[in-house]
Amino acid sequence: MNKQQDIWEIAPSTHLLDLKLKEVWAYRDLLGLLVRRDFVSFYKQTILGPLWFFIQPLFTTIIFTFIFGNLAGISTDGLPKPLFYMAGITAWNYFADCLTKTSTVFKDNAAIFGKVYFPRLIMPLSIVVSNLVRFGVQMVLFLFFIAYYYFYKGADFQPSWAILLFPLVVMLMALLGLGAGMIISAMTTKYRDLSFLVGFGVQLLMYATAVIYPLSTAVEKYPKYSWLIKYNPMTTLIEIFRYGFLGKGAFSWSYLSYTSIITLIILLVGVIVFNKVEKNFVDTV
Amino acid sequence: MSLAIKVENLSKAYQLGQIGTGTISRDLERWYARIRKKEDPFLRIGEDNNQNAKSTSDVVWSLRDINFKIEQGDAVGIIGRNGAGKSTLLKILSKITSPTTGKITGHGRIASLLEVGTGFHPELSGRENIFLNGAILGMRKKEIARKLDEIVDFAGIQRYLDTPVKRYSSGMYVRLAFAVAAHLESEILIVDEVLAVGDAEFQKKCLGKMSEVSKGEGRTVLFVSHNMDAVMNLCKSGIVLNSGKSDFVGNVHDCIDYYQNSGLNSIDNWVAKKDLHHPHFSNIKYEISGEQPNLILTIHFKTNSASNSPGAFVVFGIKSSLGGTIMEAVPSLNPFVKFNGEETSYSCEVELTGFIPGTYFIYAWLGASEAESYDWQDNILSFEITQAPMAERTFPYSARTGFLVAQSKLI
Hints:
Chain A: It is found in: Cell inner membrane; Cell membrane. The complex is a heterodimer of chains A (285) and B (411). Chain A contains 14 helices and one strand, in the order E-H-H-H-H-H-H-H-H-H-H-H-H-H-H. Chain A has 285 residues and is mostly helical. Chain A has one domain (49-284). In chain A, helix 4 runs parallel beside helix 8 (166-188). The longest helix of chain A is centred in the middle third of the chain and has 31 residues, at 122-152. The two termini of chain A are 37 Å apart. With 411 residues, chain B is an alpha/beta fold. Chain B has helices spanning 23-35, 86-93, 126-136, 141-155, 170-182, 200-216, 228-234, 252-262; strands at 3-15, 47-48, 59-71, 75-80, 101-107, 110-113, 188-191, 220-224, 237-242, 245-251, 269-271, 280-291, 294-304, 309-320, 325-329, 337-339, 344-353, 358-369, 372-385. The longest helix of chain B is centred in the middle third of the chain and has 17 residues, at 200-216. The N and C termini of chain B lie far apart (61 Å). Classes of the chains: A mainly alpha (285), B alpha/beta (411). The interface between A and B is large, with 39 and 49 residues.
């Protein structure tokens, strides 16, 4: 009973860089169970069950193909339109879901956070992992599309070596969404206005990211303003994602390093802000 | 014996009123004060948490300079009126919110049960919820799996183990939730008034489990309840909180005596906290007149509602300091309280016959019928009887022989 590690202290403020990661590790089982809860409760009492995961990207792809592809005639870098859009949507949705769900984590869990303590970081982490499951399911749909166009339609594209960067790209998207979401969530506990901003902010951000158009077109049409899109870390990730699977897209090591550094900074700031707010948010929410 | 918990100069400040408007400018002000190494301008003017006094600042100290030590294996009751700071203390101990100043040190894992069934998901089965809830409370999966049979047995839900908990009766739900928490392998167990739910038999079972935990297994228990009988049965020592200060620390019997006799603050005026829209009490106050053994309690109350609602009647109850209701007064069964968008005042008289000296609490209920309750305010007022009902009696009055002395005479 008198083990040294059992000794704890509760004090008004802890060190800013005390990220409590050890504690998070001790609660790793909770993470798994929360992911399971999200997944099971999602399709309980539905007829289509996990099929719902397919419906959203499928319909968005169809609509984008009609509006941006056919009606507006935006270039898709010579790739089959549905394939181009689905790549962008699948990757973007993962980031956007991580961001929006994480940004309301305090508000959504106020009841449980107010009654029991566990490392709060577990909640946003479980959101990221839950969405990863969803993303995985949607990737299956995407791969199915690739196979269909490659073997059946004989479309002209080749996956490239960058497909090996896929795990890194997914991780960076998750961490970027997590970090930005945590910063927003910490601020929304006091300033509720931000939560209104997130919904349409994410939508606007999508247009500032190379989701519905390739980066090359943006550079060509708006040489002056394209830096805005280029320096958007999500653009790099989506371009690599497309370059890996479909063989068309911009790739450079310098942009990848830049994106990784930005992601790590946002993540670190996010965790610090989150841990700081977590201690007293019960009093303000 | 070694210390389990040591609390030093613990304080917690809360901001009253609206939080949200103008906070950016306040935050900047605070931040500016901090970089100049000055005191936080909004904390300096804090005052005690006397809920009746008109406040001069909008920061109150919910806890102020609390100091105590708890030894390992001790069972401690935390006693105090509503708003005395009990819940705040438990919240800080369970790390839900952090203190403003002071610190707590201790050792051993803490399991806190501030609410039954936190994190239960209605769609998941009993088994899944046991795992989820156990993990939320800090158990590892293997640990829960090892204790699963014991938990299910204690809760008595074997047949429903794989049924979603939304189909459970509320009793089963509570039993399951308590069972999970009670089987946590923690050195310190913190329990808020969760026993208020559930039937009498289950309450007994919970108390039994808790005393087994503290006496049999030598774990430390902190227990908050308004039920003094439960506190007396379970706890060895106690802490009396009053307006955020620890008034008395010691043996549980002395604590309860102190609490009952302190008669600290008779509260004779209560004002509803904010603008409410549904029919509600907006203000209740009382005065006591007459001579023992026949005192008259006159209650003046105001009601209000933003919208027109069916008429209502009122019930006032009088509770002893042990927490049980002694009697209820129903001045009229007619729906005499009318709601027409304006504050309306009423008064009623209650006869207090033969009350023994001590502190008593008042609750107020407002509703259209037994089934349609508008407002219920528990323990909002208190009064103290100092005079004995029989002036010539020399042997003491005690709660054990009843709170009322029956009016009797030889014939």
